[in-house]
Write a structure and sequence with these properties.
205 residues, alpha+beta, Proliferating Cell Nuclear Antigen, two-stranded antiparallel sheet, 15 strands, 13% helix
Length: 205
């Protein structure tokens, strides 16, 4: 069987998946109708499955993410130039959420047994620490900084970062924003080329 290689749309979809091992169905995209969806429960993305190079149909228990897209409720529109949107995260700090895991060589003990003499020695893989750092993939780098106000919708900067990354990968210069002034729905949608990115906004304190 020919091994499929992810393309740029699959890469972008991965930015919106969850790392929550208690909810494994959110850790990879899923298929609803003719669309690919991915969500971490705070943001979501969807695009035509014809744009994807992978088969996500095996994620059988993927939630009905289609129901959270309130296109008919978001009555306001605005077009952002990507460079203008980038200014909103200018002062934010990139965060590399590296995962700390048990060393697979020593299984977390920090030592390994010599095959010849049977004596224990410091594990060379983890330098005797018993833990190794799994570096964050580019797709999962996030941002730390003040919340961003977008037409009275309060958004965490890490979500705007994902929108910008998607635009840069797809070489899109303008992004269409769908939103509400009166907060009928705590969601906004960015249309980036042929993909739609939904972000859950924060309630004002």
């Amino acid at each position: 069987m020919k091994k499929l290689t992810p393309n740029k749309y699959d890469f972008i979809a991965n930015m919106f998946t969850s790392n929550d091992k208690l909810r494994p169905v959110l850790c990879m995209p899923g298929i609803i109708g003719n669309l690919v969806y991915a969500t971490d429960a705070y943001s979501a993305i969807r695009f035509s499955k014809s744009l994807s190079n992978l088969d996500y149909s095996r994620n059988l228990n993927f939630p009905n993410a289609e129901s959270i897209y309130p296109l008919d409720k978001l009555t306001e529109k605005f077009t952002y130039n990507v460079q203008i949107l980038m200014l909103k995260i200018f002062n934010c700090e990139a965060i590399f959420n590296n995962l700390i895991e048990d060393c697979y060589k020593c299984h977390g003990s920090g030592s390994s047994e010599c095959d010849c003499c049977g004596n224990d020695s410091e594990c060379l893989k983890c330098d005797g620490k018993g833990k190794i750092t799994k570096e964050t993939s580019f797709a999962n780098i996030t941002l730390n900084g003040p919340d961003i106000n977008i037409f009275s919708n309060i958004v965490q900067p890490k979500f705007i970062y994902r929108v910008i990354q998607a635009a840069l990968i797809l070489k899109v210069e303008e992004i269409e924003l769908l939103y509400n002034f009166d907060k009928k729905d705590n969601k906004i949608i960015f249309k980036v080329g042929e993909i739609e990115i939904l972000i859950m906004t924060k309630l004002k304190e």
